[in-house]
Design goal:
Length: 435
């Protein structure tokens, strides 16, 4: 029996895996249903569509930047399983608000004045939900799993997350918003009951007063975490990766509509391909490393990712369609001469990205004391979210400056070089520590 198969069958892993999977599914079903509806049904301008997509991404990310220090303190100093139950109950309330916004949009009632603000409010609240759940999903793994199971567990969580992203993205592109509204509420309810099955995970350090001054506690947490060079390099490399991811995800819907002349189902297909690729990369790197937590393949992986980004840009730049009425559906898109090369390069981007980032998350959870794990992940989330906000603002600025969506991909490729450099420094630090 493989480590992966063994973990799936255990209570110390399966309930957390299912809870995380359902949460990721719900996040993406709701967010993509909202973004695709607004891009395809409300606005009719590439700049406006890119701006709305960036605003939605930024609203989801901001809570990570502001509240991660508090969430890390809570996760390290309180029972993680109890926090999961509270957070998942709040998800039900959040999705009732978001579902109401989707229903109003379906009815065409007060779309810009009430429906869209309600949906954005729910998205912001889901960002808060994910901020408090995020440190737990990684920090609980070293507490419940053996040392030689952590990489496999991290890989499974990442693969499961992106398969859930896949499922949520597919549904968002294919079902009507009223069904999306019902689905997000039901999923939140099921996620709550799954979260109740997570075994206790009491704190491994003595209880300390919580610092509710979010900016001071964030600065203190980052400073203390960054003292360890390997942790610092891992966090910076992951941050570069998620900046790249933020720009790509902002670009996908307007790129599909305005450059490829494709429908929202095709935009959904892009996100599906990306999610499948991340999952494949997550499992591939676990097999290559044979359970050892190492950044050995990270520099090469992200360079390959950059090569695929350039190839994706070239395909988009040379895209051409015959005169058509309306937008291409999936069947019409697939028969285009450059459709398969485009999807192939997108898949390559995602596989290489998964191979790059998964070992770095495992590295963060295993290179510090177990009593500090959640706060380390929280510090990582703060820096990551700040980098993603910068990426979102950069995408908005480039769009406002008249830079074509397809040309913005070249910036993503250049950022891959920065990630590769950081990955190389991390691997050298890893070798020095092992010597």
């Amino acid at each position: 029996m493989t480590t992966t198969t063994h973990l799936i069958g255990t209570r110390r892993f399966l309930p957390l895996f299912v809870t995380q999977l359902l949460g990721a599914f719900n996040d993406n079903l709701f967010k993509n249903a909202m973004v695709l509806y607004v891009v395809y049904s409300v606005y009719n301008s590439e700049a406006e569509e890119a701006r709305f997509s960036a605003i939605a991404s930024a609203l989801f990310i901001i809570p990570f930047f502001v509240l991660s220090a508090l969430s890390g303190q809570l996760a390290d100093m309180r029972d993680k399983a109890k926090i999961i139950r509270i957070v998942k109950f709040c998800e039900i309330l959040i999705m009732l608000v978001g579902g109401a916004g989707l229903v109003l949009a379906w009815q065409g009632m007060l779309v810009k004045t009430v429906a869209i603000p309600l949906m954005l409010l729910a998205l912001f609240a889901m960002g808060i939900h994910s901020t408090f759940f995020g440190p737990i999903k990684y920090a609980i793994l070293p507490q419940h799993l053996k040392s030689d199971e952590v990489l496999a567990g991290t890989g499974l969580v990442e693969a499961g997350t992106y398969m859930a992203v896949l499922a949520g993205t597919i549904l968002a592109g294919w079902i009507e918003v009223e069904w999306a509204a019902l689905c997000v509420v039901l999923t939140a309810v099921v996620g709550y009951f799954a979260g109740r099955q997570v075994p206790p995970a009491p704190p491994l350090t003595a209880a300390q007063p919580l610092d509710f001054h979010v900016f001071r506690s964030s600065a203190t947490l980052i400073r203390k975490t960054m003292d360890e060079r390997r942790v610092f390099l891992a966090i910076m490399a992951i941050s570069f990766f998620w900046t790249i991811g933020a720009v790509l995800f902002i670009q996908f819907p307007p790129l599909a509509k305005n450059v490829l002349h494709a429908s929202k189902e095709v935009a959904s297909l892009f996100l599906v391909i990306f999610s499948v690729g991340i999952a494949i990369g997550s499992m591939t790197i676990n097999a290559l490393l044979k359970g050892k937590v190492s950044a050995r393949y990270s520099p090469a992986s992200v360079i390959v990712m950059g090569v695929f980004v350039v190839a994706f840009h070239l395909v988009c730049a040379n895209w051409g369609t015959q005169e058509i009425d309306g937008l291409l559906d999936v069947a019409g898109f697939i028969v285009q001469p450059l459709a398969l090369p485009l999807l192939g390069t997108l898949l390559g981007i995602a596989i290489a990205g998964g191979m790059f980032v998964v070992p770095l998350y495992a590295f963060l959870t295993t290179s510090v004391d177990k009593s500090q794990t959640a706060r380390t992940i929280a510090a990582n989330n703060i820096v990551n979210s700040g980098a993603m906000v910068v990426g979102s603002l950069l995408a908005v600025g480039l769009s406002a400056g008249g830079v074509a969506i397809a040309d913005q991909l070249l910036l993503v490729a250049a950022m891959c070089l920065g990630s590769a450099w950081l990955g190389r420094l991390l691997y050298k630090a890893e070798l020095s520590a092992a010597a």
